[in-house]
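Can't paste images in this forum, so I'm doing it all in text. The chain is below; anyone willing to post the predicted structure tokens underneath?
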Amino acid sequence: MFFIDTIALEGLGNRSYLAGGRRTAVAVDPPRDIDRVLLAAARRGVRISHVVETHLHNDYVTGGLELARITGAAYLVPAGARVAFSRVPVADGDVTEIDAGLALRALGTPGHTPHHTSYVLEESGLPVAAFTGGSLLIGTVGRPDLVEPRLTEQLARAQHASAHRLARELPDNTSVLPTHGFGSFCSSAQAEGDATTIGTEKAVNAALTTTDVDSFVARLLAGLDDVPAYYAHMGPANAAGPAPVDLTPPAVADAEEIAARLAAGEWVVDLRGRVAFAEGHVAGSFNFEADGKLATYLAWMLPWGKPVTLLAESPEQLAAAQRELVRVGIDRPAASATGTPDQWVPDGGRPVSFPRSTFAGLAMRGTDGIVVLDVRRDSERATGHIDGSVHVPIHELHRRLAEVPAGTVWVHCAGGMRAGIAASLLHAAGRNVVAVDDAFDSAAAAGLRVITR
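Text version of the structure:
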């Protein structure tokens, strides 16, 4: 008798797990805000006896060390991971009893990192599930280029071998439960589907259907996107041992303090939806929607360590954003405010705005005399782009604003969220901007000339 609960981190595109029996359980790759894991255990009425990491994570700050400290659980970390804290080193083949008849068997699966370890959940000695971390994902594998450029090809080859080891040693009906692949940039591609098994992956996963390792490695490396800049800080933070989180509300800023922080060059981030932001916002503020991939894009673009003030429409929106940001090491906002733009602008001032449109609106206007700015990633643009458009990926735009040609800028992405971020950056820099809030798939249908290779 066993259970497995999934704890999804939708903003980061990751999953953590709680698995156990009647009395005790193990937490796998827990998020930094460990109260979610503790709540899951309380609902099950079990004690967390073990906390395990599949690897030192590059895309988020782990809560493993703190969870183990609070619960008194044994903290299992791959033996090859260099860390500055006490833990139970795990080697290939190690077996850890979790509950009566329930055990975890460590399986060395290098590739995402050199020390990566998967854990096979066994009931009465029979495999029932595999926690594969950043190794075998749904339809793909974890990317091998996050550790050290000189190791990338070697790790890509190791990913292929590790995937085949999992497929060879585990029954087809074994559930595959990865940490990455649900939107995380740690995945070499995004998952298609919500659940999978070893048998399914044998049929559809390129790592398993491609026996020629050279071909697999070439395709894997050719498909990799840029690495979010904040990843450089996650591995060291996890190796050092993250501090506990503080989710108490940040200090409240009035309109004068917000203005002063903007004047000092700090980032003031408006968490409201892009439609509301375009209709009215504090001049100089940036729009990162709380309902978008807030942590990924804000952490990617914010100069590391720079103070950030959060503006939200409600205390609940602010608290949710604060929780998401601590997962990537943005621990304490410098200040915050809730309410409406009218309340955030000093007396005598007023909110500013910019227009929104669609690809049909762009086609009706015509592209002569304006700048069409594409802020999608390189891989997205390679599939098709508007003739004559300028390309600056969203994560580079804040450093390359001067490269955007003069004139009114019509900015687009694939769906609207990143265009909203880009429009806010451009507007804050004094540019005339129109945010194209539309799906790129509709560009050609609207009559725009889309160039495909």
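Residues 101 and 124 are 5 Å apart (CA to CA). The two ends are 54 Å apart (CA to CA).
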